[in-house]
Amino acid sequence: MEQILGKDWTITPAGGSTGEAYYAQREGKRLFLKRNSSPFLAVLSAEGIVPKLVWTKRMENGDVITAQQWLEGRELSPGEINHHRVAQLLSKIHHSSELLDLLMRIGKKPLDPENILQALKAEEQEASFVNTNIEIHQSLRYLNEQLNHVQDQPKVVCHCDMNHNNWLLTDDDQLYLIDWDNAMVADPAMDLGMLLHWYVPEEEWAQWLELYGVDYNDALQKRMYWYIIAQTISFIQWHRNRKEDTEAARWLDDLKRLMVKLGIMNH
Question: Cα–chain-centroid distance for residue 102?
């Protein structure tokens, strides 16, 4: 990073899972730097979805470094996700034809729910000789039986990580959704399902979705729960592969609660 900015900048790691993000500051100027960030950061910036993109530079080794405004602020608390501004910003993202066109142009293929299910099944078959759970097998059977409810749905740009710490509220009251490394072209029910399941009481889902701009009906509910179950299984598998047994068990407990709610037990 020093060769781009010069030695008079103070550069510190910004944390995160990839270790590719940095803070830089010099004489009151402050930037957020990232290596090989999402290629559609410029469109996200232009639409006011992420902090302003200041510049992009390509390194000799092919890496691309982006610099964004470093804004003072904080992540939203879990309780703040149930707010009309979150619903409206997510709706803006899901309805952006510019974002969708760009993501398709750079080669993102629409995420097919059947492919999601096959990947989950393949992972479970690979793991079954070591450690598996009857609840996962029952849930996979349920996803297979419900597949027709999620096939052939319109696709939008989905962020795919609705964790509250990706929602940034700045000190001057601007709301952003950051960290777009996992973005996909998918059914909006994927984002909606996880956000509502994690953060909004179910009796308030209809009101939240009205702010987002859709009616809450049986068809949408089936799609959201399909993706909630699929993503919960994926989290279990992810943590299990990393020998993170406590986290895997926590997600398995969540899956069991979902199974009871949806009547999947002994399905």
Answer: 18
Query: 160 exposed, middle or buried (CB, 10 Å; 0-12, 13-18, 19+)?
Result: middle
Is 187 an active-site residue?
no
pTM of the model: 0.88
Q: Choosing from 112, 161, 181, 254, which is the catalytic residue?
A: 161
pLDDT digits (tens, 9 = 90+) for 7-39: 678 788 776 555 478 878 887 788 888 877 777
* H-run or E-run covering 266: none
> Cβ contacts of residue 75 below 8 Å, gap of 6+?
164, 165, 166, 167, 168, 169
Tokens of 4: 């781009």
Tally Cβ neighbours within 10 Å of residue 190: 28
Q: How far apart, in whole angstroms, are the C-alpha atoms of residue 177 and residue 164?
A: 9
User: Rounded to whole angstroms, how far apart are CA atoms 92 and 254?
Assistant: 30
Q: Which tokens sit at 135?
A: 């609840």
Structural domains in the chain? 2-70 (3.30.200), 78-262 (3.90.1200.10)
251 with 239: CB under 8 angstroms?
yes
